[in-house]
Amino acid sequence: MDSILRSISFIFHPLLMPIFGVLFYFSKSPRYIPVEVINAKLVSLFILTVILPILLYFLLKTLGKVTSIYLKSTKERIIPLILNFVVTLVIIKRILTPTQVVELYFFFVGILISTLSCLILAVLKFKASIHLMAMSGLLMFFIALSIHFSININGTLAFMIIITGAVATSRLHLKAHRFTELVVGFFLGMIPQLILVNYWL
Asked: Rounded to an integer, what distance in angstroms lies between the CA atom of residue 100 and that of residue 32?
């Protein structure tokens, strides 16, 4: 049982949620976007949101700043969250400008706000769930896209809700978080996306 729950936490790691959101957007958007532009953005975002954080993690682990990829203590979270904030800022300034793909721009602005909120809580010694923050933010983005593009993605939304519940269960069972930390993480991810919907929906 533990191995299954650990696998769920690993497969749906927060690092992967932004790129999942981008892939989903490009697969469902009715807008014409040249394939070359899509490929360039996907490669750039994969490098910045997946490859770079992994390299930075190994650097921090070598320097003794973190002990595991799950960032078990609030102290371990501070530097990775600062680095993630900077990377996300670069993305919205250089790769996803509001004049090109407005939906993805505000999706990453929401990620930026969630990251900053989680960082502030970490400084205050509160360990909000980054897993739930990433999952709920992605879920809210999917809901907004389904309304925005008038598409039926009920199956995808149902799957996301089930997976969000499974991730929350795994974090509780593995004693990685308390219930309060999961709830706070959930709302840290969802609320910024919900508020920013007003700027593009």
From this structure: 11
- List b or e across 28-44, with b for residues whose CB sees 16 or more CB atoms inside 10 angstroms: ebeeeeeeeebeebeee
174 phi-psi bin (left φ>0, alpha ψ -120 to 50, beta other)? alpha
pLDDT in tens, 20-47: 999 999 999 888 888 999 999 999 999 9
pLDDT in tens, 163-194: 999 888 888 887 878 999 999 999 999 999 99
Q: What is the pTM of this model?
A: 0.91
The token duo for 120 is: 């502030």
Which tokens go with 148? 């925005």
What's the gap between Cα 1 and its chain centre? 26
Residue type (1 letter), 175: K
Distances (CA, A) of 121 to 10, 101, 125, 130, 175: 23, 31, 6, 11, 19
Among 13, 164, 196, 184, residue whose Cα is nearest residue 92? 196
Q: How far apart are CA 53 and CA 51, in angstroms?
A: 6
DSSP class of residue 197 equals G
